[in-house]
Specification:
By secondary structure, this protein is of the alpha/beta class. The protein is 46% helix and 22% strand. The protein is built from 5 helices and 7 strands, in the order E-H-E-H-E-E-E-H-E-H-E-H. The strands form 2 sheets. It has a 5-stranded parallel β-sheet with strand order 2-1-3-6-7, with helices on both faces. It is globular and about 30 Å long.
Length: 129
C-alpha cells in the first residue's frame, strides 16, 4: 500500500483527498500546514506528497524547495496543487522548485488519481544500467 501525505489547510479539500485516495487503497495522512507537513513526512516516510501552494504558515513552492533540499525527503515525489497558479510562469516556478507534477483546483478526482499513479509508477521504475 502506498502512503501519501497531503499538506492542505482547506478541510473540504482534505475530505476530498481522503475519500479519493482511500477509495483506491492508498493510505492518506493529513497535515494542515507547512510545519506539520514537514514533521509528518519525516515521521511517516510517504511515497508521495500532495502539497498545496497556499498554506497558513508558508508558500507551498518554498516548502517544496525545503523538502527537496532535505536529504531525508528529497527522494519523495511531490504533486503541487493550487487554485491560483494559472499562468505558465507560475506553473513553471512550481516545477522548477522540484515538484514532479502540478494540478489546478478544482480538480477532477479521476485526473488526480491518474497523476498520482503516473508519478508513483515513474518513481518506482527501476533505473536502466
Amino acid at each position: 500500500m502506498y502512503r501519501i501525505v497531503a499538506v492542505e489547510d482547506d478541510p473540504i479539500v482534505r475530505r476530498l483527498f481522503s475519500r479519493t485516495l482511500t477509495s483506491e487503497s492508498y493510505e492518506c495522512i493529513m497535515a494542515v500546514n507547512a510545519a506539520s507537513g514537514l514533521q509528518t513526512c519525516l515521521e511517516q516516510k510517504p511515497d508521495l506528497i500532495l502539497l498545496d501552494v497556499h498554506l497558513p504558515d508558508g508558500n507551498g513552492i518554498e516548502v517544496c524547495r525545503q523538502f527537496k533540499d532535505d536529504m531525508r525527503l528529497r527522494h519523495i515525489p511531490i504533486l503541487i496543487i493550487t487554485g491560483d497558479a494559472v499562468s505558465v510562469e507560475e506553473r513553471m516556478e512550481g516545477l522548477e522548485s522540484g515538484a514532479d507534477d502540478y494540478i489546478l483546483k478544482p480538480f477532477n478526482p479521476k485526473e488526480l488519481l491518474a497523476r498520482i499513479k503516473g508519478i508513483l509508477k515513474a518513481s518506482t521504475r527501476p533505473t536502466q544500467a
